[in-house]
Amino acid sequence: MEDMAQMQQVAEALPLGTLQALRGCIYKPRTSPYSFQGLANEGLTILAQIKRTSGLPVVTEVMSSEQVAAVIDHVDVLQIGSRNMQNFELLKTVGQVNKPVLLKRGLSATIEEFIMAAEYILSHGNANVILCERGIRSYDTYTRNVLDLGAVVALRQLTHLPVIVDPSHAAGKRELIPDLARAAVACGADGLIIECHPNPELSVSDARQALSLPDIQALIESLAVIANAVGRSLVNKSLVKHQDRFSTLSQVTLVG
Ligand code: PEP
Ligand code: MN
Predict the structure, then answer these.
(1) How far is it, in rounded angstroms, from Cα 93 to Cα 95?
(2) Strands 19-23 and 58-61, how do they pair?
């Protein structure tokens, strides 16, 4: 998230009936300490405003217990990013709050380590965990990561939790994202989280993987037919409001 205008443009361009949440990260885990680090607490006002004007739940990443305390009353879903998937103290903290947690798979985490990370949250009292496959690290540098759709299938068999896919961080290149998103829905993903920007080239974070608004609109349209082909449909209930996948089994949820 960069500013209110950017968030508003995104919210206005996307089909609100299909989109189930908006993600705006104000604390950003950047590889380089010299890259944009997020708006921090200043961004809270924007999150609150976009939540009000769009009527959509908002998601934001937290990297510490202090950040959990700062955002807990202003957001609907807490994201734990890949780099913190095994930050056990943070997992225990979000295990004790009354908000759903979107847990991203660690960069090199095995499926078992991913499930155990989710167990930390569940066993501390928070039953509302959404698993997110976002690509794992491998030797090929052409894509940013390798999207592990096998893990999506396995996680859906091994757990009762909703499993969503982030093709943006997996591919790292916008031209690969639509096909990966469709493949994710085809193999059973319960939702998608996709990065977009009104002017992708000008995005201060992950510009290469941000979809333009017309591109994400076209992608969303194309997903309906894939969802139907595998006996699902695009939304009308939110994962955010439902404790487990069974209540949303026939729907695919989109986070923009
Ligand atoms: C993000 O979701 O913006 C992000 C930093 O992703 P990940 O934690 O998957 O790298
Ligand atoms: Mn990102």
Answers:
(1) 5
(2) parallel
**196 strand-pairing partners:** 211
Helix orientation angle between 4-13 and 213-229, rounded to the nearest 10 degrees: 40
* CB of 235 closer than 8 Å to CB of 185: no
Atom of ligand 1 nearest to the CA of 205: 3
Question: Could you report the per-residue pLDDT of 125-154, keeping only the tens digit for each?
Answer: 999 999 999 999 999 999 999 999 999 999
What the block records as the tokens of 6 is 């950017």
Cα separation, 238 vs 254, in Å, equals 9
For residue 47, count other CB atoms closer than 10 A to its CB. Answer: 25
| Residue 51 Cβ < 6 Å to ligand 1 | no
Task: Quote the tokens at residue 190.
Answer: 């319960």
Task: Residue 59: name the closest of 198, 248, 252, 192 by CA.
Answer: 192
Q: Note the pLDDT tens digit of each residue in 40-87.
A: 999 999 999 999 999 999 999 999 999 999 999 999 999 999 999 999
Phi, psi of 236 (to 5 degrees): -170, 5
Q: Which protein residue has the closest C-alpha to ligand 1 atom 9?
A: 82
Ligand nearest to the CA of 83: 1
105 lines ligand 1 (CB under 6 A): no
